């Protein structure tokens, strides 16, 4: 595996592979790899001959009071994991390479960004859309792979690709969970022992939502309240939002229709750690 830090070098390498007819797959990440990331890397291999993982903790997607400084980082560990997964290139630019002085441009996606994460984390999706655009231009992939855990992010990126005419196929890979149901996340390392024990209750609550839908509950508010009620039993959770919404549009109808796929989105604080999770369920 080759580590590349410079955009120009990355582009040159990709151009030479493309001229040989190779398909390029990009897995954008902020590093501190867990099994979720590794599943994306594994899947990437099915879509092309050259797999590039990007590793860049993007400052512009963190709010001023968020965890950019303390976001977990371990380059050596990430390098070894990516290498053991057969990644061809690890694109790991320095901040100055991605955001040189006098960098003024922002990519603002105008759909899916005005709710949930977009409201709770103002500017977050502008930062994501801007860096993803730059990562796409640096790695010029045919296919890019994102995780379902950041469900809204995946919709924003699909919209970005569609509207800015990127010729890139976006694949969204399922959430990978710990044995007790907690969705894998680099931020799980922030949890204390007590918090870690409680964290799987989030998936437990989401499963109650799934069951309710499968048993015929179609009223959106009722589905939300089943999930909320379960979470509220644990006073350690500070609930940011629980929202059952249409999985393609994020619309919030009074009642869902048979055949409609609903995503139940959750964001909670456990101590200082903000965790997000979601599940999909199709209305019978
Ligand atoms: O999902 C992430 O890890 C980040 O938001 C991404 C897509 C790599 C952009 O920084």
* N/C terminus separation: 47 Å
State the shape. globular
CATH architectural type of the largest domain: 3-Layer(aba) Sandwich
Amount of beta strand: 15-25%
Report the mean per-residue pLDDT as an integer.
98
Spatial arrangement of strands, main beta sheet? 1-4-3-2-5-6
The DSSP helix count reads: 10
Largest sheet: 6 strands, parallel
CA gyration radius, whole angstroms: 19 Å
Number of domains: 2
E-strand count: 9
The CATH homologous superfamily of the largest domain is termed: HUPs
Bound molecules: pantoate
Write the layout of secondary structure elements.
Blueprint: E1 2-4, H1 7-19, E2 24-29, H2 35-44, E3 50-55, H3 75-84, E4 89-91, H4 95-98, H5 117-120, H6 124-139, E5 143-147, H7 151-163, E6 169-173, H8 193-198, H9 201-214, H10 220-232, E7 237-246, E8 261-270, E9 273-282
Parallel strand pairs: 1-4, 2-3, 2-5, 3-4, 5-6
Antiparallel strand pairs: 7-8, 8-9
This protein binds pantoate.
Pantoate binds near residues 29, 61, 131, 132 and 153.
Notes on the structure:
This protein has 284 residues and is α/β, with parallel strands linked by helices. It has two domains: 172 residues, HUPs (Rossmann fold), CATH 3.40.50; 92 residues, Pantoate--beta-alanine Ligase, Chain: A,domain 2. Helices cover 36% and strands 20% of the residues. The strands form two sheets. A six-stranded parallel sheet has the order 1-4-3-2-5-6, sandwiched between helices. It has a three-stranded antiparallel sheet with strand order 7-8-9, covered by helices on one side. α9 packs antiparallel against α10. The structure holds pantoate. Pantoate binds next to β2 and α6.
């Amino acid at each position: 595996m080759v580590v590349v830090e410079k955009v120009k070098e990355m582009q040159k390498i990709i151009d030479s592979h493309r001229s040989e007819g190779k398909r390029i797959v990009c897995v954008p990440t902020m590093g501190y790899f867990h099994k979720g990331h590794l599943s994306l890397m594994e899947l990437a291999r099915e879509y092309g001959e050259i797999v590039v993982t990007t590793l860049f903790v993007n400052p512009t997607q963190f709010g001023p009071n968020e965890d950019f400084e303390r976001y977990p980082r371990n380059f050596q560990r990430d390098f070894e994991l990516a290498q053991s997964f057969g990644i061809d290139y690890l694109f790991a630019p320095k901040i100055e390479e991605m955001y040189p002085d006098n960098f003024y441009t922002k990519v603002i996606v105008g759909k899916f960004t005005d709710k949930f994460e977009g409201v709770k984390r103002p500017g977050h999706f502008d930062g994501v859309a801007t860096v993803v655009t730059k990562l796409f231009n640096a790695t010029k992939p045919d296919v890019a792979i994102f995780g379902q855990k950041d469900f809204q992010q995946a919709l924003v990126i699909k919209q970005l690709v569609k509207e800015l005419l990127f010729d890139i196929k976006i694949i969204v890979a399922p959430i990978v969970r710990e044995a007790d149901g907690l969705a894998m996340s680099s931020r799980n390392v922030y949890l204390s022992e007590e918090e870690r024990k409680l964290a799987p209750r989030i998936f437990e609550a989401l499963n109650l939502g799934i069951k309710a839908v499968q048993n015929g509950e179609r009223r959106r508010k009722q589905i939300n309240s089943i999930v909320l009620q379960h979470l509220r039993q644990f006073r350690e959770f500070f609930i940011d939002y629980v929202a059952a919404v249409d999985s393609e549009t994020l619309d919030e109808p009074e009642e869902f229709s048979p055949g409609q796929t609903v995503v139940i989105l959750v964001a909670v604080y456990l101590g200082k750690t903000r965790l997000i999770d979601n599940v999909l369920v199709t209305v019978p």
